[in-house]
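Hi R.,

As promised on Friday, here is the backbone we talked about, encoded as structure tokens. Could you run it through your design pipeline when you get a chance and send me back a sequence?
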């Protein structure tokens, strides 16, 4: 299985390199592949080099039976992603090429006002955030929904900022909101918004034919280094109250003295344990028949997911998402942190093995087609917006959920309709 995995990985690298040479663009699947390697393939490679290290195997997979099944699923999912990408690029899906997606100039100030207001409201509801700390106990109820609304408008704003025409003043105001948000994220050590924003700018650069191998290596190395420092600084929150001291101390940390499965090399890989938990749970209790994805669907409407779970008599803390459920399976009823999820475990626990492979193929097939249309078109189509939102989370998607992004996309399009900023014209 390791040999097959290596062959598929090599073919995928060749496919992405050819795309880079032809388009001078950093593709969705390239970013996804980098993260996928760190999450799933690094532990397999380490075990392949040192197959006698049973403590390492037990940390990630518990036993050899689960390890072998995990390897099979990781390999076949990568194969489906490769085939879906290859076929999607070749067929070039027909999209709404006659439709122009745009936000009218008169509505840009509305986006700025709502984005700025919801950001400030979120900060005021988030306890100690202004001091560089985040303490859940000090937050106000409803904070999560305020942040969700803010982040949806933030996505609308940044898409408009990069890909639509508009007044310089309105774009300048949004840039100030964006810089404040990113500075706040850096302040508390949250890398997610920084990565999402950087990937939006990467898509814009791809549209301009900016990327080549040298630039990817240099910028990628700098980005990984910065993310490592931010992560190390965040880990010092319990020891250091001063934000400056956290970052200063993070530069002097010993990055070599780690236990089993620890350290920067395995930061992504720790979410592999969710696949182990999913395999064990399915063997004991069977698949969930789309339960968690029905929760994602109801989460589109504020508070509806809680009502839905209460109606089904399910604990909201345990069954609110696959990540909550995996945290419960791994740590029990009193977890000290969240274990997250990953793309394979999230699909497998709900739909089983065969449907997981099929969904991955369909997803990559459509994303590759939307991406090809994005580069061909001089206008931003609805398919282009869908591609951009997925592209912005492409680095985190291997340890996330495909369908949770559909919730965000639906809200983005719905809100654009609501503010009457969506216009269609013949091209």
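Update: got your reply. Pasting your designed sequence below so it's all in one thread:
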């Amino acid at each position: 299985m390791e040999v097959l995995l290596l062959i598929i990985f090599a073919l995928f690298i060749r496919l992405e390199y050819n795309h880079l040479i032809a388009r001078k663009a950093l593709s969705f699947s390239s970013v996804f592949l980098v993260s996928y390697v760190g999450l799933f393939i690094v532990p397999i490679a380490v075990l392949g080099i040192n197959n006698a290290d049973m403590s390492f195997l037990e940390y990630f997979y518990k036993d050899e039976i689960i390890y072998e099944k995990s390897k099979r699923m990781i390999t076949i999912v990568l194969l489906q992603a490769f085939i879906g990408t290859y076929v999607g690029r070749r067929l070039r899906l027909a999209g709404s090429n006659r439709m122009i997606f745009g936000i009218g100039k008169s509505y840009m100030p509305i986006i700025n006002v709502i984005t700025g207001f919801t950001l400030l409201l979120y900060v005021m509801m988030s306890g100690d955030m202004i001091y560089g700390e985040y303490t859940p106990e000090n937050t106000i109820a409803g904070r999560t929904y305020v942040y969700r609304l803010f982040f949806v408008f933030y996505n609308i704003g940044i898409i408009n900022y990069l890909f639509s025409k508009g007044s310089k003043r309105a774009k300048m105001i949004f840039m100030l909101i964006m810089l404040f948000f990113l500075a706040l994220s850096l302040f508390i050590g949250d890398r997610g918004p920084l990565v999402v924003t950087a990937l939006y700018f990467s898509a814009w650069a791809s549209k301009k034919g900016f990327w080549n191998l040298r630039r990817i290596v240099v910028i990628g190395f700098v980005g990984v280094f910065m993310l490592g420092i931010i992560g190390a600084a965040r880990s010092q929150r319990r020891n250091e109250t001063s934000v400056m001291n956290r970052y200063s101390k993070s530069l002097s940390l010993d990055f070599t003295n780690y236990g089993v499965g620890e350290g920067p090399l395995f930061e992504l890989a720790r979410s592999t344990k969710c696949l182990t938990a999913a395999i064990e749970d399915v063997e004991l209790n069977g698949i969930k028949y789309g339960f968690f994805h029905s929760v994602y669907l109801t989460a589109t409407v504020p508070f509806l997911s809680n009502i839905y779970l209460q109606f089904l008599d399910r604990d909201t803390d345990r069954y609110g998402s696959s990540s909550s459920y995996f945290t419960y399976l791994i740590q029990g009823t009193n977890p000290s942190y969240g274990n997250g999820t990953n793309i394979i475990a999230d699909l497998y626990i709900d739909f089983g093995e065969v449907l997981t492979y099929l969904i991955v193929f369909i997803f990559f097939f459509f994303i590759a087609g939307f991406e090809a249309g994005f580069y061909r078109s001089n206008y931003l189509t609805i398919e282009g917006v869908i591609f951009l939102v997925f592209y912005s989370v492409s680095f985190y998607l291997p340890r996330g959920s495909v369908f949770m992004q559909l919730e965000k996309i639906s809200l983005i399009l719905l809100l654009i309709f609501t503010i009457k900023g969506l216009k269609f014209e013949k091209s």
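One thing I noticed while checking it: The first helix runs from residue 2 to 23.

Thanks again,
M.
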